[in-house]
Amino acid sequence: MDATPPKLRKPVQPGMSPRPGGSRAGSADAAFDIWLQRGLRDVYGEVAEEPIPPEILALIENSRKT
């Protein structure tokens, strides 16, 4: 799974694969990818854009030091 924050990721364009190094053949596959991406954004987009709580950021920073 891609750990890059959603706002920093390049959006998947029609006909492009959302998977690194992969390619989708055919317009049906590209259409499905677009449909899936939009559906997931509709369901989870608001939650994904919420700021990360400071307590969790502190845990991440502390884990990097050890």
User: Structural class from helices and strands?
Assistant: mainly alpha
Quaternary arrangement of the chains shown?
A: single chain
**How large a portion of the residues is in β-strands, by DSSP E?**
under 5%
Helix fraction, binned, reads 40-55%
Shape: elongated
Span between termini: 24 Å
Described by strand count, sense and barrel closure, the largest sheet is: none
Low-confidence stretches: none
The beta-strand count equals 0
Write the element-wise H/E pattern from the N-terminal end onward: HH
Number of helix segments? 2
**What Rg do the Cα atoms give?**
16 Å
Mean pLDDT: 79
Please name the defining characteristics of this protein.
mainly alpha, 2 helices
Secondary-structure map with pairings?
Elements: H1 27-48, H2 54-65
Summarize the structure.
This protein is an all-alpha fold. The chain has helices spanning 27-48, 54-65. The longest helix is centred in the middle third of the chain and has 22 residues, at 27-48.
Report on this model:
52% of the residues lie in helices and 0% in strands. It contains two helices and no strands. The longest helix has 22 residues, at 27-48. It is elongated, with a radius of gyration of 16 Å. The relative contact order is 0.10. The model has no long low-confidence stretch (mean pLDDT 79).
